[in-house]
Amino acid sequence: MLEDQTAAAAPTPWPAAYPEGYAVVDVETTGLARDDRIVSAAVYQLDARGGVEDHWYTLVNPERDPGPVWIHGLTTSVLSSAPLFPEIADEFAKRLEGRVLVAHNAAFDWSMIAREYARAQVTAPVRQRLCTIALSKELQLPLPNHKLESLAAHYGVVQERAHHALDDARVLAEAFRPSLHLAAEADLRLPLLACQPLTEWSDGPANPRPAGYIGNQRSYSTPGSWRPSRKRPACPYPNPGRYKEGEQLIQGMRVAFSGDTSIDRELLEDRAIEAGLHIATSISRLTSVLVTNDPDSPTTKTTKARSFGTPVIDEAAFVQLLSHVVPAPAS
What pLDDT sits at residue 170? Predict the structure, then answer.
């Protein structure tokens, strides 16, 4: 009988493929556009099973107006004496190195971090990220929405200072731990995505902040996306069909992107439009080609591309093809 009880109480074996450590991150920013900056950052370092090892917080002088002060509470006077990002880049990197970056809507936090490191001419030591929104969906948690406060309430985590980077990171760390254990018990594949550091970026004119921008809740164009919607000119050319390996791109082809690119995504999309290509925000049977540096990632776009037989190429191949786009046939 005692043996039966002991066997029943034996812990579930931890999946061997799971990461050895995590860095739960939150950044507060001046906004969402390509020239917006980080004003504060926090990191909770967790071990392989989600136990807290350390935490760290810093203010950052954004060298511009602080944006939505009514949300993050950080005024110009408070931030004027804060260190510049290059001055905290090394310490930040030590907190991230060798760990999976975890954030709530991780595409946003990673993009802001990658851009700051690019400005500082340093490579961020992040190779993979995990979005807690994606993990919640994989676990099919009964949440009313994808806000951090809803995930926290589900696990009974009390938030003390909403939109303060350190408290948001603490709340997320406490909510991530039980999610991680649920995933391990189900032997679930974690929704890890590769992180591509930026080698080319732009601090061009900022996009207008989208209506409804409210700090950490952020107004998005689509669920799970941090980028505000951009109005693009309609492509004037008909779609000539799918890209064929070994041939050239043709004006009018529908191009979709998935995952990180070393060239800032907006820059890459702008160059594609200038070449006469159509930017597709989703994958359909009409999509000519999918550009991704991580074809094995479990994203909606890569999954649909495989199911439709849509050709897939990486960023380097796409950039090379961009220089020789074939003009659309005369109508």
Answer: 98
